[in-house]
Amino acid sequence: MTPTLPRLTRAPASESFAGLLSALAALGHAAWVVDAAHGHVLAANLEAENLLERKDLEGLDADDMIANLEDMAYWDGVRCGIVTILESDAELTLRSGATRAVARRIAPLWLADGSALFLVTVRDRSREQRVEVERETALAELRATLEATADAILVTDLAGRIRAFNRRFARMWSLPDAVLHAGDDRAVNDWVRMNVMDVDAYDRRLEEVFAHTLSESVDAIAQVNGAVIERHAQPQWSQGRPIGRVFSFRERNPNRTGAPRDPGNLGVDQLTNLPNRSGFVEALEQAVHSSRESAGFAVLCIEFNRDALFGEGGDSAAGARRLSELAGQVRGAMRQPHFCARLGGSRFGVLIDYASEAAAEAAARRLIDVQERSGGVPVAVGIGCWPGVGLSADEILRHVEIAMHRAQHSTRSSFALHKFGFDSWRRRRDRIEAGLQHAAGEGRFRLAAQPRFDTKTGLAVALEVHLRWRDRELGELPASQFMGVAEERGLVGGLDDWV
Predict the structure, then answer these.
(1) Which of 137, 416, 453, 465 fits 403 for a cystine, CB–CB 3.0-4.6 Å?
(2) In percent, how much of the chain has pLDDT > 90?
(3) What is the pTM of this model?
(4) Whether residue 411 sits in one domain with residue 472
(5) CA atoms within 13 A on the CB side of 232
(6) Same structural domain for residues 404 and 279?
(7) Phi and psi angles of residue 74, each rounded to the nearest 5 degrees, phi first
(8) For residue range 385-412, what is the model confidence (pLDDT) as tens digits?
(9) Number of domains forming the structure of the chain
(10) Secondary structure (DSSP) of 46-68
(11) How many helices, marked H, and strands, marked E, lie in the chain?
């Protein structure tokens, strides 16, 4: 049963009240006492006046001290005779309009003469919050740095426990989604060992690396798929002492026969040193596959005004230098792990991991603000968030480019969101699932053959066969737009039988 408060019909005895005032002054942080019967402040210390930036707090309503919904609900309960303790973080709005993060506690207090009061104590958390924000920003920038490097990166502590790795590491060792999302170091290590040709030699060498904390090493690791991985191991230092190990991995023979395509190796734009359009499409395909069971991602299509970039004289050299600078500004506007590529001309694409629509908008605003403050090149940004933006890499890129063209209709730098809603996306997926169940029996699949040529001899050396599906409502779809649904719904077996 919830206890009720005895009503305070008189001021506390002078001796009790004097002792209470002394206690308030000695607390060292903001505090005030509230009359339980009328909900007025009876006394407050100097720290409370400084925190709230106002004098003469005595007599104010308790609701006005920290005016948020949680506090107002609490004092409504007090007026109904409900006694509880409220302790949580809150946001304090000052008379100037500024806000402060505080930790606030409200508890009933009974004096020796039987009178009932409430003691409110408030601790300013502004500095702690700044530290937390700075820490989160530093972690986000660290993750972005890990993703921006050309190498696969693995960071461990001195005992070998995994602290971080980037997507290139996951791709290099073919880590499945179940292992990526499990957060199990042993599962990651076991999967890596499964991909090594000589497991015993790998284990012995790794033990030697961790046994010599301060040493640096370079090794070659043969994978079962024929790749030869060059591994660099270096100690990680902090405040003059080693705290862990940083491993970087790079493939020595990426062009070997049968090597899988890697977005980072599909081609690098020589001007900006960023991946090209093919690499960006490959990264999108990987993101779609990885995000089916996890958080989504955002895609930005960014195009700078070519006339402003190259000028009336068409100075291509100056424009090229400026374009390289703009590539750095695009990356600088991102606060989360991302993959950036030059799509062609003055157009860039950015894939932001685990980003909401609000985070993508914030990144676009930062980029636009930089251009407007510096009198830079006008820019148009198209934004789309998975899953609503599309089911395949090509569809996603097409939709964000359409959104970017909408943004270009503005007379100044702006951004536009892709409008394809989640409900439409869900209906499309449901249609694909329903159609796939009968497509084979209705003869709606076909195979399209495409020859592959040797660029040196011009001769056809292989024949690629692609699966196509013609649906009554959706038209002809490539496999990339329906294979994901088929895998999730267990319909791949029927497709295999047909092929």
Answers:
(1) 416
(2) 11
(3) 0.38
(4) no
(5) 10
(6) yes
(7) -65, -45
(8) 887 777 788 888 888 988 888 888 777 8
(9) 4
(10) HHHHHHHT-S--TT-BHHHHS-S
(11) 17, 18
